[in-house]
Write a structure and sequence with these properties.
globular; 2 helices; mainly beta; five-stranded mixed beta barrel; about 160 residues; OB fold (Dihydrolipoamide Acetyltransferase, E2P); 6 strands
């Protein structure tokens, strides 16, 4: 019998670059027991031969100290790159049907570009099974010397 090689390796890795569509408020973060921040990341794409614009929505979550850092340095409309993994989120509908959604658990993130002004709402909001969150204003100081630099935050809160 022939032995299969390399088939036992499972990989769960996600790398996404997009804009922060929705941010929770600081109050929602403070009330959380597990210190996690949930946000929506939207990726806008356009086919080369088409004028139609597509929006892809991803539910994301940041945990621990990194969640505090995320709230401090990001804002709605900012471009970020996230490295993470998928996690299943089972839930039950009001009719009793059991379903499973997926969310991206952020392991590290890079701030690629901050939103200059408060971003206009994205035209097509993704269907939400989670509670709606309120947006927050940027906590970042306008005279911050790091404003124009790309920042990367790792899970242990180290800054590159």
């Amino acid at each position: 019998m022939r032995e299969k090689r390399g088939c036992n390796v499972a990989m769960n890795k996600v790398v996404l670059t997009g804009k922060i569509a929705e941010m929770p408020s600081k109050e929602a973060f403070d009330a959380a027991d597990d210190q996690s921040v949930r946000f929506d990341l939207v990726i806008v794409s356009q086919w080369q031969n088409s004028e139609e614009v597509h929006h892809e929505w991803f539910a994301c979550v940041v945990h621990g100290k990194q969640a505090e850092t995320f709230l401090r340095y990001t804002q709605k409309g900012a471009s970020i790159k996230i490295n993470g993994h998928l996690q299943g989120c089972p839930y039950e509908t009001p009719e009793g049907q059991r379903l499973c959604a997926a969310e991206v658990v952020v392991d590290s993130f890079q701030i690629l570009e901050l939103a200059e002004e408060p971003a206009a709402p994205f035209p097509k909001k993704r269907p939400s099974t989670l509670d709606e969150t309120t947006q927050t204003k940027s906590i970042r100081n306008e005279k911050d010397p790091l404003k124009t630099q790309m920042l990367e935050f790792l899970k242990d809160n180290r800054l590159f």
